[in-house]
Amino acid sequence: ELSDAAYLLQGQPMFKILSRIKEMERAGEDIIHFEIGDPDFPTPQNVIDAGIDALNKGYTHYSDSMGDYDFRKIVADNNMHTRGFRPDMNQILISPGANMLIYYAVRCLVNPGDEVIIQDPCFPTYMSVFHFCGVKPVGVPLYEKNGFRLHPRDLEEKITDKTRLIIINSPHNPTGAVMKPEELDEIAYIAQKHRIYLYLDEIYSRMNYGDIPFYSPSVIDQCREYMIIANGFSKAFAMTGWRLGVGIGPEKVMEKMGLLLQTTSSCVPAFIQRAGIAAIQGSQDAVKSMMTEYKERRDILVKGLNEIPCMHCLTPGGAFYVFPNIEKTGLSSEIFAQQLLEKGKVGVCAGSDFGACGEGYIRLCYATSKENIIEGIKRIRGFVEGIL
User: Fold this and answer.
1) Dihedral sign, CA of 344, 348, 352, 357?
2) Per the count of CB atoms within 10 A, which of 207, 267, 308, 315 is most buried?
3) pLDDT at residue 211, rounded to an integer
4) Contact in structure between 305 and 377 (CB atoms under 8 Å)
5) pTM score
């Protein structure tokens, strides 16, 4: 028999969809991929070169489990530039991907039976971690009429004496919504007032295209008391396969999260950290080019979706996802996504994969070429018209 916790693991639905698509492609099917948030751009060449150079120079052994000193110092300097404060070295943890930070934080801050407040819909890894750890998720609904931005008063109404952690993701997966600075500040003060840790998932912080600029409320307490920043290199730097994340938080919290990292994976490989240094310190031209291309793709996709009968789609301000409403098709999110894949040969995620409030929507990731986006829109239109 497995442990009870093992049966509660859910994983990520987008990887399950990808697995099904790979089966179809091996059978000769031609599928348009909108299902998984993996940049289609190569990792910038200077980052690859730095990783190779580090391997050749012998960066192939254990490193400090908190992260190499040089890398953490550069992270601190960069945080001063991007968020307005320089954290101490002991506030910084280099992790094997940002996903792991979610597990570390929940395991170190929340007891079984306690509650964590999240946005609904939300990134599915949160839910899998909560269930595995015996933690109760409390969702705050996000409404299309509010641009999928969380309303602080809605959040405060969910706080109980069992609330131990609040998780906020902006720019947001799956909707692409970007919260306003004043909204984030209000949430920060709510967390401070109730003495609750606030986990800021800022993995898409560099992927911002709209009128609302990226803002981190972490500047309020400089991550010294109750705020934790989670960030990483996967999305903006097209480094999903490198598995490199950064956490910044109160020293006593990061110490325990670091011990958990030390227990589970010892350290992040040193050569990968050298590549991270190159990503931060090197030319940002490749990143800027990617962001320009993503914005153009977004605009093509949103326009095309809004021209399809019974569908409408807001223009998201960040990340690389759109979250169109498909309620008028009469199909549930899950059935729509399944049939679109089988009949229309387009891979998308059901909105319900991200929480109960995602029902009636689907998520598309525009990390694919403009040509694929145009073809994908054509196929989706054909599928929708065929079921009406």
Assistant:
1) negative
2) 207
3) 85
4) yes
5) 0.95
Residue 121 DSSP label: S
- Tokens representing 190 are 């709510």
Which has the closest alpha carbon to 360: 326, 385, 330?
A: 326
Structure tokens at 304: 């095309």
Residues 318, 212: Cα–Cα separation, whole Å: 9
Position 12 pLDDT exceeds 90: no
pLDDT at 365 over 90: yes
Location of structure tokens 């606030």: 198
Q: Which residue has the tokens 């999260």?
A: 257
Query: And the tokens for 386?
Result: 């065929």
How far apart are the C-alpha atoms of 337 and 317, rounded to whole Å? 24
Long-range CB pairs of 309-315 (<8 Å, 24+ gap) are 309/381, 309/384, 309/385, 309/388, 310/384, 310/388, 311/380, 311/384, 314/144, 314/147, 314/148, 314/175, 315/210
Tokens 């060449």 — which residue? 45
The C-alpha atoms of residue 137 and residue 163 are separated, in whole angstroms, by 10
Q: Kindly report, residue by residue over 298-316, the tens digit of the pLDDT.
A: 999 999 999 999 999 999 9
Cα–Cα distance measured from residue 194 to residue 164, given in angstroms and rounded to the nearest whole number: 10
pLDDT digits (tens, 9 = 90+) for 101-143: 999 999 999 999 999 999 999 999 999 999 999 999 999 999 9
pLDDT of residue 102: 97
Distance CA 90, CA 92 (A): 5
In angstroms, the CA 19 to CA 39 distance is: 17
Tell me the CA distances in angstroms from 290 to 8, 39, 78, 202, 303, one per residue in order.
37, 9, 20, 18, 20
- Give the tens place of pLDDT for each residue, 146-201: 999 999 999 999 999 999 999 999 999 999 999 999 999 999 999 999 999 999 99
State CA 308 to chain mean position distance: 28
